[in-house]
Amino acid sequence: MAGISLILQNNPTVTGINCGSSSPKLGGTVNLSAFPNLTQFICQNNDITSISGYENNANLQDIRLTNNKISGSLPSFTGTPNLTTAVYNATTSLGTLTSELAFFDNALVYPSVVGNMSGAVYKAGTVPDYSALSGTKYLYRRFLHNASDGSNSQKNITISWTGMTSGFVANTTALASQNAYIHIKIPESTGYRDLLVAAPTSYTQFDDNVGCGDGAAINSGTAKTINMRNQSWPGLPSSDTNWLVRITATTGWTGRITQITVA
């Protein structure tokens, strides 16, 4: 893997750097401390793993870091008062996200943080304050049921999390700060089925909250079988089909989901 080497020292004439693209992609770490007058830094669609040295550069106005392999905490821009554009996203195993919940600091969280949100473009002084939000929020994740699987109605899901001491609970339990719901749906074939409830042999096809699990708890980091079969209606589509995972949380949710995989 190619690396980025910025070796100029205290060079006041450099005000802009664009890493461009290459094959293989640029990788490694970036330290911008040698460029005190840098106003713009662009490094997108590469494989850099961390960036530093920009935090107290009052001249910085534009920084773009999308589609790299930066992990850990999101960048801090408190020492860059003239920053007008910042574009950033960290890598994640959560997959494609459509969410009212927030993606912050490499995890899915309730949108109560005040600060930089992944993948957003924001202007200095206008970073959104989510601390007053309340009520039920959702994450929807789509994954593909391949045609090669035929009418197979079972898949395994693995979810990793921290800060959710009650874990996932059945829909008959009230939502609280320490728990969440998880449902699975096959559009045009099922309702939203509850992974914490045992799957019945037969039920009304599009009913919500019908079980698709084994009735046992879900453990963080441990695979759980999704069972979408039903004996009272035809098998699942044999063509490529979108399945949906829906996670539901409420005000003050303390969970931090760091991984969702389905196989």
Number of domains: 2
Total strands: the figure is 20
Number of distinct helices: 0
Highest CATH level, the class of the largest domain = Mainly Beta
Share of β-strand residues: 25-35%
Helix and strand pattern = EEEEEEEEEEEEEEEEEEEE
CATH topology of the largest domain: Jelly Rolls
Estimated helix fraction: under 10%
What's the architecture of the largest domain, going by CATH? Sandwich
| Overall shape | elongated
Mean pLDDT over the full residue set:
77
Terminal-residue CA separation: 29 Å
Low-confidence stretches: 116-126
Radius of gyration: 22 Å
Q: What composes the largest sheet?
A: 7 strands, mixed
Q: Which structural category do the helix and sheet elements fall into?
A: mainly beta
Characteristics:
263 residues, 2 domains, five-stranded mixed sheet, mainly beta, seven-stranded mixed sheet, 0% helix, Jelly Rolls
Question: Care to describe what's here?
Answer:
The protein has two domains: 1-91, no CATH class; 137-262, Jelly Rolls (Sandwich). It starts with a strand and ends with a strand. The strands form five sheets. Strands 8, 12, 14, 15, 16, 17 and 19 form a seven-stranded mixed sheet that branches. The chain has strands at 2-3, 16-18, 26-31, 40-42, 47-52, 62-64, 85-87, 98-99, 102-104, 107-109, 121-122, 137-145, 154-162, 167-168, 179-185, 193-198, 211-213, 224-227, 241-249, 256-262. It has no helices and 20 strands. By secondary structure, it is mainly beta. Helix content is 0%, strand content 35%.
